[in-house]
């Protein structure tokens, strides 16, 4: 859809312009820190921003608050499970993850958290990351800012009530979110926006073998793998998926851990390409209207 891409590009340009004026931009750090996420003191940002304005007028392709995958040294990946918790399936998945000593990330629906806080508490207790996937799974690009804010706040509250702390990551339902929303959500809630680069389309219920094979075929070091712990076929796919990913030498971390491992893509990246660890945020993979996520 060329028109849509053009629109996205315009929105990205616009939001970057706004960011330069009003917002310390983590995408414009002049040097690559050893630990990019931690080493981004906000007090330094205005100077950094000024330099970047002079040296690199071209806007970044994508804000560094959005991630489809992460450039890492080592075969680390993040398995992510959306739309739960499910009373029937999530506990079974937690059992399986425990057997494999795998840490995963759950992008939970606030409504479901309120209904089954004990499952979310167990997941957090067992080392998994709990992240926001909205209160009731609306398309953020099609609802008001006030509605989005309410969706996020209620979910944040429910998660905090269940596990004692707020999430730091958001996956918008369907992966659908505007550039403007990314910015104000990041400003207000502090969330990084997490999409994915591996999508087995398990919500179409293609059968467990297909889900497994798609994941095995697409997963690379630094991948963020999308699936859903509300579909029985996904659960059925996971034992052999985990076995085979392990056989390929992959190691499983939470999304926040993966972000913290981000390494520069090149030894001397230009200012506009230095984001939070120069992690990739590949625009073509953004599924603006996919039922995935
Ligand atoms: Zn979803």
Can you walk through the features of this model?
This protein has helices at 2-22, 45-55, 90-100, 110-115, 117-125, 145-163, 179-189, 208-218, 232-247, 255-260; strands at 66-67, 76-82, 105-108, 129-132, 169-170, 192-194, 224-228, 251-252. The chain has one domain (2-285): Glycoside hydrolase/deacetylase (TIM Barrel, Alpha-Beta Barrel). The strands form 2 sheets. Strands 2, 3, 4, 7 and 8 form a 5-stranded parallel beta sheet that branches. The protein has a 3-stranded parallel beta sheet with strand order 1-6-5, with no helix packed on it. With 293 residues, it is an alpha/beta fold.
- Distinct helical segment count: 10
Order of helices and strands: HHEEHEHHEHEHEHEHEH
CATH-defined architecture:
Alpha-Beta Barrel
The overall average pLDDT, rounded, is 80
Q: Which topology does CATH recognise?
A: TIM Barrel
| CATH homologous superfamily placement | Glycoside hydrolase/deacetylase
Helix content: 40-55%
User: Roughly how many Å apart are the termini?
Assistant: 20 Å
Number of strands: 8
Low-confidence stretches: 1-55, 269-289
Radius of gyration: 19 Å
Domains (count): 1
Query: In one word, what is the shape?
Result: globular
Classification by helices and strands: alpha/beta
**CATH class group:** Alpha Beta
Bound small molecules, deduplicated: zinc ion
Q: Strand content of the residues, in percent?
A: 5-15%
Profile the largest sheet. 5 strands, parallel
């Amino acid at each position: 859809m060329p028109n849509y891409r053009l629109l996205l590009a315009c929105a990205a340009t616009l939001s970057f312009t706004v960011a330069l004026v009003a917002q310390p931009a983590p995408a414009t750090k002049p040097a690559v820190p050893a630990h990019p996420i931690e080493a981004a003191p906000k007090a330094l940002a205005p100077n950094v921003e000024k330099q970047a304005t002079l040296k690199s007028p071209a806007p970044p392709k994508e804000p560094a608050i959005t991630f489809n995958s992460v450039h890492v040294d080592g075969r680390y990946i993040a398995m992510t499970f959306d739309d739960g918790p499910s009373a029937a399936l999530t506990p079974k998945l937690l059992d399986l993850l425990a057997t494999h000593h795998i840490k995963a990330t759950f992008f939970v629906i606030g409504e479901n958290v309120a209904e089954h806080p004990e499952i979310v508490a167990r997941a957090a207790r067992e080392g998994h990351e709990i992240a926001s996937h909205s209160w009731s799974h609306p398309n953020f690009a099609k609802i008001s800012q006030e509605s989005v804010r309410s969706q996020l706040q209620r979910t944040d509250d429910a998660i905090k009530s269940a596990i004692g702390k707020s999430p730091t990551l958001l996956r918008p339902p369907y992966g659908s979110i505007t550039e403007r929303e990314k910015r104000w959500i990041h400003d207000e809630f502090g969330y990084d926006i997490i999409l994915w680069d591996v999508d087995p389309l398990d919500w179409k219920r293609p059968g467990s073998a297909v889900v497994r094979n798609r994941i095995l075929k697409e997963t690379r070091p630094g991948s963020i793998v999308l699936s859903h712990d509300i579909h029985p076929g996904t659960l059925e796919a996971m034992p052999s998926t985990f076995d085979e990913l392990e056989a390929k030498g992959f190691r499983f971390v939470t999304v926040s851990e993966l972000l913290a491992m981000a390494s520069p893509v090149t030894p001397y990246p230009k200012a506009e390409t230095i984001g939070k660890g120069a992690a990739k945020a590949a625009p073509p993979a953004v599924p603006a209207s996919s039922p995935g996520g």
